[in-house]
């Protein structure tokens, strides 16, 4: 390659073609000149030969008594030689030179076999060309057969092309000078012409680099030549369409990413080699190991699925989907990096149950990957278990009073009982019916609490009044067990609470009633309320039997009892704490328990003093009446 740039290549190529054309024309012209000069010289030699033949035939005597060329004829021929500078040679029939105007005859060898002589003898005329050994120039010979003179066979006239060298030298000088001038002119014109082409090409190249770098807003300003201007316009149109297409692709990708990231289901796409191509945040949180949660420092994409998931069942179902092209579905338990029964045992209540489905992804008829969908069904399973437990517990709780009522009603139909036994049976039926009534009322209350889509009807309530009504509600039960109820209210600013007073009294009464029930007779329980600007805290404190640590997480479940026999003997329904939890939840608060077996328990309810909606309404109201 002569040069890397198109400009250099075009210049070198143009100059090379020009040189070849000029050199070719030079050699053609020089050859034509030589040919013309030879033909002209041969014609002149032919005319001269004809003239000298006439002189020999019709002029003075050619031969003397010895058979040699006479002196008169020799003088005539010498004079002609001096005038024309042509060499004249006379040859006898044996090939011996009788006369030569340039060389002594005795020094010349026999000319019988010379090319021109042979042609002349056979054809009448003959020509040839030989290079002079002394001058190094071509010599042209023309021989003419002489039939009219018996002693002379051939008249030969020759000349050296002395003028040829001069003509060639002059022609070379003229050609060289003209060639240099022509090269300069052509070089300048070619350079300007090539620059006219390459300069727009450089602009196009620079703009193409900008397009390659992502700057599709770059534009090319080229007016000529027309072909490059059309190319620039086409590139701009292409860039505009490419920009539009990329924008649509990016927009679609952004929508897809937003859609994937907003899904609660985990979505993972792996290729035929089980290399992760796409994974949304839900999938990372649900399926992958904890160390892969930081996608910036340790991206999931581009990693083998076997490197980020330690579940053989998931790998197996993906492999089966790839090989068979069938849908797959499994349910697994995960806790941290553990899967299966190990995760269930280690994680206990923190383990998550996942439903994993796999679907093959096709490109034409070939399977190119697998789409993995992960759903967290832990809550569904928990709710299903709660439903089963609820049905079982309700059935169990209602079975006892119903059995008692049916049994004792059957006994009442027997007339063998006296009045005292009948009264006893009726009292048992009444007590069991009231138990059933309490269970149904509590269930209805829970159902109504669960159906609140918004907060219940709320007003500003006095904390002191809530405490007072709660104590009055539980006073009779406390007197039965000789239990003292102590109250303490910390509300120096006399702030009120935004809420449903009736429900709050119900919640506190349930806690206080449990504290009285599960404490020894003659003990003391405390009800403390502490009011601050942002929140209100209620505490029910007892020194009773306490709650085991493993049971503290379940005591707010429906029908769950720590001491089943004692709870039933005290007439409890097992729904009190569940009601408390729901009432606190609809007031946007929290309820927690702190307890040690044998030392008592402390239930703490924390409620916002006013709801978020009230705060917004207050801020808006203040903005209306703000004095600037």
Question: Layout of helices and strands, plus pairs?
Answer:
Layout: H1 6-58, H2 71-84, E1 87-91, E2 97-100, H3 115-123, E3 125-131, E4 138-145, E5 154-160, H4 162-212, H5 226-262, E6 266-271, E7 276-279, H6 281-286, H7 305-308, H8 312-324, E8 328-335, E9 338-339, H9 341-347, E10 352-363, E11 366-376, H10 378-412, H11 419-450, E12 459-461, H12 463-480, E13 484-490, E14 497-499, H13 501-517, E15 524-531, E16 535-541, H14 564-569, H15 576-586, E17 590-596, E18 600-608, H16 612-624
Helix pairs in contact: 1-4, 4-5, 10-11, 11-15, 12-13, 13-15
Overview of the structural elements:
The chain has helices at residues 6-58, 71-84, 115-123, 162-212, 226-262, 281-286, 305-308, 312-324, 341-347, 378-412, 419-450, 463-480, 501-517, 564-569, 576-586, 612-624, and strands spanning 87-91, 97-100, 125-131, 138-145, 154-160, 266-271, 276-279, 328-335, 338-339, 352-363, 366-376, 459-461, 484-490, 497-499, 524-531, 535-541, 590-596, 600-608. It is α+β, with helices and mostly antiparallel strands. A 6-stranded antiparallel beta sheet has the order 7-6-11-10-8-9, sandwiched between helices. Helix 4 (162-212) runs parallel beside helix 5 (226-262) and helix 11 runs parallel beside helix 15 (576-586). The protein is rod-shaped, with a radius of gyration of 63 Å.
């Amino acid at each position: 390659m002569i040069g890397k740039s198109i400009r250099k290549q075009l210049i070198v190529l143009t100059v090379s073609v020009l040189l070849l054309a000029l050199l070719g024309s030079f050699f053609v012209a020089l050859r034509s000149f030589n040919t013309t000069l030879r033909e002209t010289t041969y014609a002149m030699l032919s005319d001269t030969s004809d003239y000298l033949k006439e002189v020999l035939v019709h002029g003075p005597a050619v031969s003397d008594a010895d058979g040699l060329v006479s002196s008169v004829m020799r003088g005539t021929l010498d004079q002609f030689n001096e005038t024309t500078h042509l060499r004249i040679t006379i040859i006898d029939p044996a090939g011996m030179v009788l006369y030569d105007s340039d060389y002594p005859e005795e020094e010349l060898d026999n000319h019988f076999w010379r090319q021109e002589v042979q042609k002349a003898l056979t054809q009448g005329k003959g020509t040839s060309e030989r290079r002079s050994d002394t001058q190094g120039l071509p010599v042209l010979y023309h021989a003419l057969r002489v039939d009219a003179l018996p002693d002379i066979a051939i008249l030969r006239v020759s000349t050296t092309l002395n003028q040829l060298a001069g003509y060639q030298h002059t022609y070379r000088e003229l050609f060289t000078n003209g060639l240099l001038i022509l090269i300069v002119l052509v070089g300048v014109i070619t350079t300007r012409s090539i620059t006219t082409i390459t300069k727009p090409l450089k602009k196009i190249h620079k703009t193409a680099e900008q397009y390659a770098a992502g700057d599709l807003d770059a534009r090319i300003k080229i007016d000529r030549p027309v072909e490059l201007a059309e190319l620039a316009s086409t590139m701009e149109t292409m860039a505009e369409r490419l920009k539009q297409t990329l924008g649509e692709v990016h927009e679609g990708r952004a929508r897809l990413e937003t859609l994937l990231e907003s899904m609660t289901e985990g979505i993972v796409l792996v290729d035929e080699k089980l290399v992760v191509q796409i994974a949304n945040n839900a999938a990372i949180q649900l399926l992958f190991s904890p160390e892969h949660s930081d996608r910036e420092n340790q991206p999931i994409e581009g990693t083998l699925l076997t490197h980020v998931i330690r579940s053989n069942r998931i790998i197996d179902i993906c492999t089966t989907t790839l090989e068979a092209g069938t849908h797959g579905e499994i349910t697994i338990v995960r806790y941290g990096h553990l899967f299966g029964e190990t995760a269930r045992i280690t994680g206990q209540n923190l383990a998550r149950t996942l439903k994993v489905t796999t679907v093959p992804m096709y490109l034409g008829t070939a399977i190119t990957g697998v789409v993995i969908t992960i759903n967290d069904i832990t809550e569904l399973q928990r709710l299903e278990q709660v439903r089963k437990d609820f049905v079982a517990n309700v059935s169990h709780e209602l079975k006892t009073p119903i059995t008692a009522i049916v049994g004792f009603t059957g006994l009442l139909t027997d007339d063998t009982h006296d009045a005292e036994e009948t009264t006893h049976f009726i009292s048992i039926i009444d007590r069991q019916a009231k138990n059933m009534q309490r269970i149904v009322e509590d269930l209805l209350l829970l159902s109504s609490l669960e159906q609140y889509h918004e907060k219940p009807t709320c007003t500003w309530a006095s904390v002191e009044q809530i405490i007072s009504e709660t104590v009055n509600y539980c006073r009779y039960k406390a007197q039965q067990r000789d239990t003292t109820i102590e109250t303490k209210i910390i509300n120096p600013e006399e702030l009120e609470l935004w809420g449903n007073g009736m429900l709050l009294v119900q919640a506190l009464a349930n806690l206080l009633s449990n504290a009285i029930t599960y404490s020894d007779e003659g003990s003391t329980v405390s009800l403390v309320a502490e009011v601050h600007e942002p929140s209100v805290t209620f505490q029910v404190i007892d020194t009773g039997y306490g709650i085991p640590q493993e049971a503290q997480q379940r005591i707010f479940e429906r029908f769950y009892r720590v001491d089943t026999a004692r709870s039933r003997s005290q007439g409890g329904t097992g729904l009190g704490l569940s009601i408390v939890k729901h009432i606190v939840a609809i007031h946007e608060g929290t309820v927690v328990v702190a307890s040690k077996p044998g030392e008592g328990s402390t239930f703490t309810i924390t409620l916002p003093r006013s709801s978020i909606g009230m705060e917004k309404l207050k801020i808006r109201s203040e903005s209306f009446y703000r004095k600037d």
